[in-house]
């Protein structure tokens, strides 16, 4: 400390010990830090920190908080999660919640074309496993048949579950499927997960964790570090996909977490990415 004071340095100074196992008094380390001198127990640790500073990703201003309205606490099923997140700019398919079979028929007719029907209940997190998803439904007879078959299938799978109703959604084009999740941890703060998803998310395990504060460009760079990122860049003559739209989704989720402290977790899987834009096909919110 005396040497540092005598030098009166005009450039940043750090302290790196030569014996990592040496017993350095805690008050000595505290004095260094109070003087603005970072302490490292060994040179290689100092070099690692300097390298990290050199390659540090540019940061942006803190996210603008986006408060959303939650229908209730606990697990919000898909239709309520989408109602909460849509005003925050999260892109979802056109859809209508239906509590009765007649409402489901009317919803399908209003959307036009082929539709998907998905069972809705807070306790039903994996709808497809319970027979709670029907695709490519066209016309009233198909919608009515799917409604009754779906209720029977869910009742057989989990007799204690009572459905709120179903979500009727327009079916879009196929694309590359990602998973995008957000979690607010009391100790670690917010973190966003982006990876290749759909039903294969748990098998692929190809994900990146993104901390708040990154710029849109930096988030794009993180996404392009995924092992399967060539699929996003234009694979074998296909068009490059809109990774920027996924970055915008990440920024929106960051804002939602900042503006709605009650939210503990958000799960969007799959998020289908297109050459222009992306769409989250499913959503789930856990709130305290």
TrEMBL record:
Source organism of the structure: Sphingomonas bacterium
Keywords: ATP-binding, Ligase, Nucleotide-binding, Tricarboxylic acid cycle
Source species, domain of life: Bacteria
Record-given protein name: CoA-binding protein
Classification via InterPro entries: Acyl-CoA_Synth/Transferase, ATP_grasp_subdomain_1, Succinyl-CoA_synth-like
SUPFAM superfamilies found in the cross-reference section: Glutathione synthetase ATP-binding domain-like, Succinyl-CoA synthetase domains
GO molecular function list: ATP binding; ligase activity
GO BP: tricarboxylic acid cycle
Pfam families membership: ATP-grasp_5
């Amino acid at each position: 400390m005396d040497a540092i004071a005598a030098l009166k340095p005009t450039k940043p100074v750090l302290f790196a010990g030569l014996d990592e196992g040496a017993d350095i008094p805690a008050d000595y380390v505290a004095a260094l830090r109070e003087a603005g001198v970072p302490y490292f127990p060994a040179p290689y640790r100092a070099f690692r920190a300097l390298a990290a500073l050199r390659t540090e990703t540019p940061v942006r201003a803190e996210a603008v908080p986006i408060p959303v309205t939650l229908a209730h606490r606990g697990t919000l099923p898909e239709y309520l999660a989408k109602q909460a997140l849509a005003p925050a700019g999260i892109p979802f398919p056109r859809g209508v919640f239906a509590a009765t079979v007649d409402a489901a028929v009317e919803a399908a007719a209003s959307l036009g074309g082929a539709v998907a029907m998905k069972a809705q209940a807070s306790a039903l997190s994996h709808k497809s496993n319970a027979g709670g998803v029907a695709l490519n439904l066209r016309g009233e007879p198909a919608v009515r048949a799917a409604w009754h078959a779906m209720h029977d299938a869910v009742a057989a799978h989990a007799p204690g579950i009572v459905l709120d109703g179903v979500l009727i959604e327009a079916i879009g084009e196929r694309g590359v499927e990602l998973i995008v999740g957000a979690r607010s941890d009391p100790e670690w703060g917010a973190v966003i997960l982006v990876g290749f998803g759909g039903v294969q998310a748990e098998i692929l395990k190809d994900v990146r964790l993104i901390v708040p504060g990154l710029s849109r460009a930096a988030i794009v760079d993180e996404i392009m570090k995924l092992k399967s990122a060539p699929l996003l860049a234009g694979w074998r003559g296909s068009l490059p996909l809109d990774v920027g739209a996924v970055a915008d989704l990440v920024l929106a989720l960051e804002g939602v977490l900042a503006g709605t402290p009650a939210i503990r977790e958000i799960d969007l899987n799959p998020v289908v990415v297109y050459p222009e834009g992306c769409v989250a096909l499913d959503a789930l919110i856990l709130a305290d």
